[in-house]
Amino acid sequence: FHGSSTWSKLLVVVAASSGGGLVAYADAKADLGLVPSQATEKKKVLVVGTGWAGTSFLKTLDASMYNVQVISPRNYFAFTPLLPSVTCGTVEPRSIVEPVRNILRKKGGMIKFWEAECYKIDQVNKKVHCRSDIGTNLDGHGEFTVDYDYLIIAVGAKPNTFNTPGVVENCHFLKEVEDAQRIRRSVMTCFERANLPNISEEERKKNLHFIIIGGGPTGVEFAAELHDFVAEDLSKLYPHIKNLVSISLIEAGDHILTMFDKRITKFAEEKFQRDGIEVKTNFRVVKVSDKAIFMTNPATGEISVPYGMAVWSTGIGTRPVILDFMKQVGQGNRRVLATDEWLRVLGCDDVYALGDCATISQRKVMEDISAIFRLADKDNSGTLTVKEIKDVLADICERYPQVSLYLKSKQMKNFLDLLKDSEGNHVKESKELDIEEFKKALANVDSKVKMLPATAQVAAQQGNYLARCFNKMKICEEHPEGPLRIRGTGRHRFHPFRYKHFGQFAPLGGEQTAAQLPGDWISIGHSTQWLWYSVYASKQVSWRTRFLVVSDWMKRFIFGRDSSCI
Ligand code: FAD
Q1: Which CATH number belongs to the domain containing residue 99 in this structure?
Q2: Which of 57, 71, 340, 363 makes the best surface tag, with the fewest CB within 10 Å?
Q3: Which amino acids bring their CB within 6 angstroms of ligand 1?
Q4: pLDDT in tens, 387-413
């Protein structure tokens, strides 16, 4: 799991005297004395972020083994997959959040939480600099530093605007609970404004034009939610302006939902067409002003479209604190913080990164794949039999699902063709093949393999995996024999992180959902919507939020959505 020297360090008992200043205000006036004295003997684990990755780490971690502290600017966990439902009042914001302190209470009160933002990581002195918005009138202006032995970075990502002018000033994002609440108010404001007397029809139409930029799962789901809100609730409340409403979905690529199977993309595009949601593909937004969105298309050139409300949902970018940290650890030329398959940040010790803020380095994965081939070639002949190659590929696919997806794809046909003769027949399993040919094909895989998706599923599995590794450290110290190292010599204490894909949903409105489940099994329609309800109810972090979410759904079925502009 870790370099052996690092892990052996883990068991070195920290001298009790080193505990002073575990948590210290920046001016170092006093040790807060918040950490029990016996806890100073335990290693300090600092978790930054209480989203999917951080919370799943904390839930699984055996907190009695470490001195655990948590920092996050929000004192709750948010169930992000239901954020689009919050934008239209299908679900209330408080139903999808769980206070961090409720989660920590279940860990026996052993974990400390500070509501603050980490603005700098000092990996040389193993300190994290924090500032708290709620503490600006306190001594030290709410700034303090926290020491760590192990740092778990789980700060997520920020919306990516691609530096498009006017986006930050004029568009909504849909990333946080506050964003969803703002969108809900803004939708109602647009309706009330369009309803005012003495305004032109053109002005009413402009106010009721809702534009969503980005045809990924979030943009599509929000468009569908908004359409349902208008069709099922607002059209009854604003009958005289209901025909002036328009919803447009702008996508730079050829299609929406490109990460899904083509059948889902086709179904979604056709359904949106039937619902009157205008899908504009191959349009790239170049500027946003307070009145119009400017976009280009190879056929039309630049056009401007007036709008009432715009939501920007084109993917995620790296947070400033991570960009600064990347420079410190020699990753300044990368876009995303890179880790190895054990989630250790490349270029520094004792720091782990998981969830949306990091990615497993593809270069390391490719080195491993190359090494797997090398190890399989036990007699160094430079050849492997077809059967051995198939075993190697199966091993690779099991370790790296992202490669597995690629191997199954059509682009990978050339690679698999190497297992066939010139007439296209499968060659005998005992036939020897040149490994170099496969290595050449692998160079191609390197540039094509997609990184793990930035999803809650990946983040939660990573948090769970890392906590299990931390829990097993002591046992592994006593029984060090683990999986063989692929790179270098010796053995690892733990298996690398392996992602298990359980499928993905795309709610499309009108009580219809599309699902792409493992084994490329596709399911679309009303029954899949019920599957969606059951999965999302079961995935809630507590019985409290489960109850609240289900009762919100029932309330909506019975009374419709609330249209008040609070
Ligand atoms: P987050 O969950 O974003 O958590 C980051 C945490 O870090 C937060 O607690 C934040 O307050 C904290 N933080 C931020 N900055 C700092 C700082 N400087 N210092 C300290 N703490 C900080 N995924 C799915 O799998 N399925 C879905 O259906 C799905 N739907 C989605 C719908 C929407 C609208 C959105 C926005 C995302 C959706 N996702 C979905 C993606 C999923 O939410 C993310 O992949 C997931 O939240 C990533 O988890 P994380 O822990 O890395 O980051």
Answers
A1: 3.50.50.100
A2: 363
A3: 48-54, 71-74, 80-81, 83-84, 117-118, 154-156, 174-175, 218, 319, 321, 355-357, 454-457, 459
A4: 777 777 777 766 666 565 555 554 455
